[in-house]
Specification:
Keywords: Chromophore, FAD, Flavoprotein, Lyase. By secondary structure, the chain is mainly alpha-helical. Among the domains are: 178 residues, Rossmann fold (3-Layer(aba) Sandwich); 180 residues, DNA Cyclobutane Dipyrimidine Photolyase, subunit A, domain 3 (Orthogonal Bundle). Helix content is 50%, strand content 5%. The protein has a 5-stranded parallel sheet, with helices on both faces. The longest helix has 28 residues.
């Protein structure tokens, strides 16, 4: 889910003055200047809307980030683990009641759902009905910057799920709770009303959700209800994979090697869970009111216009059946060439399954298992070779959730590299608006942003290009771009979105430092060589011939683009690049020498 927004206050460098008096004075001057800049930037952040002050208090300091990393502050996932461990004996002693409840969240499927299977088995063991619940929380949608497209997809999925469960006599209770603080109380009240003594749900890995589930476990026990929270959204649960020194991985490549070995050595992680079995016949009459309840509408501020809803419904059919059909088609038709074609946005070569992973209509382990089964040439003697290019991409989901759990301050509007907090970002509204609308004068950037605004989705290579352009060429706060993506994406997932933006802004989990700056023109020529993607999404450039389409005012004469009303580039890339290098070095206190060097893609 979207980041937990908190305002950046005056965060000074953790480095203490040392050495000569002159050096100490320079360090002190830098810290004082940094503090002034941070205070100014805090005001700009507040005004820009980066920080959602209705929901979150001032942001933590760099020192507090270090306390999390040093173990001086408990990680939220450890708080939940502790709550489950300390209550385990008491929860196991609770006898089954008149029903068992499963709380759907981002796991909107019957197939291969860990908590749903456990709830069904528990209910069947004593012949009591299974009841399912889903809570629409407008404040959570707002706090997490959930897009209207994503909410619409969830509601359409719930329609499918409700009918599928009804065929098994399983009621799905869906209601809207206006105040997020009332959600847990309402769930426990319904459990008591139905006589349920056991509640199952799958774990979410953002800070708010981990803390919420820890409270639910304890509050449930106070009311005689055993709450069980399971891992389901990942293949390998966070915390299992560690370096030889016992630390958490902060780089993907060694983490992925450990991930592949673990999956190879523990094949049970890919074993599917069984869908729920049919309820006793008496459940239909007992829960007649729930069966007849219509689904609530989307909250007013998350409601799509009818035309847009119809458009997205056509592009993104909802439900787990559609997810499986897409997965099967991809594995059969595209998987073999995925590694060679995945970076080309004009090619229809990607799985287009991210919306289903995000909403939970498809389990990641289902996709991994199917891909590995299709990889007939794999050798079990060499675990890493079992995992092709697509599976490696799927593993990034696990990795970013692993990061979320062990560097929780990324949920609090803080970059993974928290020492980058002092970079001075710009908050130029007109420039940001041009980026949002796809009117920057950089064809590949404009094409990608228009795809996002039309489809509520963007090709992954293009996500990196437009993010690098915003953060590096325009020097606009990357969190504004992260927020805009979440407001528009139908597949919005906080961990993956935050991780991607951190990569592009060089503030995240990435061994490459800040001097990696994408050249939009070079990226365009490399990944959209014939300009098909650009011409599709920027019709005004349809008449520009050859390679001039990548840079109509630079490589071409610009006549066709100008006559069609296509804007000139809003910034000179060379200038933007040099300015970014200067600003990053300034923020890190590294002086201004050698600003022309670095990686230029």
């Amino acid at each position: 889910m979207p980041p937990k927004r908190k305002i950046v206050r005056a965060a000074t460098s953790p480095v203490r003055p040392e050495g000569s008096p002159a050096r100490r004075q320079r360090t002190l001057d830098h810290e004082a200047d940094t503090e002034r800049k941070s205070q100014d930037q805090a005001e700009e952040e507040e005004q820009s809307g980066v920080i959602q002050r209705d929901f979150y208090p001032p942001e933590m300091s760099n020192e507090r980030c270090k306390r999390y990393l040093n173990g001086d502050l408990p990680l939220p996932i450890d708080v939940l683990r502790k709550a489950l461990a300390e209550t385990k004996t008491q929860r196991e002693q609770i006898q089954i009641g008149d029903a068992v409840v499963h709380w759907f969240k981002r796991d909107l499927r019957q197939t291969n759902n860990r908590a749903l299977e456990r709830a069904s088995v528990k209910a069947k063991s004593q012949g009591v009905p299974l009841v399912c619940i889903f809570i629409i929380s407008p404040q959570d949608y707002q706090a997490h910057i959930t897009s209207a497209a994503r909410v619409d997809f969830e509601l359409r999925t719930l329609e499918v799920l409700k009918e599928d469960l009804k065929e098994k006599g399983i009621p799905l209770y869906v209601t809207t709770i206006e105040q997020r603080k009332d959600v847990l109380g309402h769930i426990l009240t319904k459990c008591a009303e139905w006589g349920a003594k056991h509640l199952f749900c799958n774990m979410e890995y953002e800070v708010d959700e981990l803390r919420r589930e820890a409270r639910l476990v304890k509050r449930g026990l106070e009311k005689g209800i055993a709450v069980e929270v399971l891992h389901d959204d990942v293949v390998v649960p966070p915390g299992i994979l560690r370096t030889g020194a016992g630390k958490h991985y902060s780089v993907y490549s060694p983490w992925f090697r450990a991930w592949t070995k673990y999956v190879h050595d523990h094949p049970h992680v890919l074993e599917p869970s069984e869908p729920p079995t049919r309820n006793p016949d008496s459940a239909v009459e007992r829960f007649r009111e729930i069966f007849s309840m219509p689904l609530p509408s989307a909250p007013p501020n998350k409601t799509l216009p009818d035309a847009q809803r119809d458009h997205l419904s056509h592009l993104w059919p909802a439900g787990e059946h559609e997810a499986m059909l897409r997965l099967e088609r991809f594995v059969e038709q595209k998987l073999g060439k995925y590694k060679e074609t995945r970076n080309f946005p004009a090619e229809n070569s990607t799985a287009m399954l991210s919306v289903h992973f995000s909403a939970g209509t498809l389990a990641a382990r289902t996709a991994v298992r199917m891909a590995l089964t299709a990889n007939k040439s794999s050798s079990s003697k060499d675990p890493p070779n079992l995992f092709g290019g697509w599976v490696s991409e799927l593993a990034w989901r696990d990795f970013y959730k692993h990061v979320l759990c062990h560097w929780p301050y990324v949920c609090m509007s803080k970059p993974f590299k928290y020492e980058y907090s002092d970079i001075r970002w710009d908050y130029h509204q007109e420039k940001f608006t041009r980026w949002c609308e796809g009117k920057t004068g950089f064809p590949i950037v404009d094409a990608a942003m228009r795809q996002l605004n039309s489809m509520a989705w963007m090709h992954n290579r293009c996500r990196m290009i437009v993010a690098s352009f915003l953060a590096k060429d325009l020097l606009i706060d990357w969190r504004l771009g992260e927020k805009y993506f979440m407001e528009r994406l139908i597949d919005g997932d906080f961990a993956s979105n935050n991780g991607g933006w951190g990569f592009s802004a060089s503030t995240g989990v990435d061994p490459q430092p800040y001097f990696r700056i994408f050249n939009p023109f070079l990226q365009s020529e490399k990944f959209d060589e014939r300009g098909e993607y650009i011409r599709k999404w920027v019709p005004k450039l349809a008449g520009v011939e050859g390679k001039a389409v990548h840079d109509p005012y630079g490589r071409g004469k610009g006549k066709e683009a100008e006559e069609a009303g296509y804007p000139r580039p809003m910034v000179e890339h060379k200038f933007g690049r040099e300015r970014a290098l200067e600003r990053y070095k300034e923020g890190l206190g590294r002086g201004t020498a050698n600003v022309g060097g670095g990686v230029h893609n």
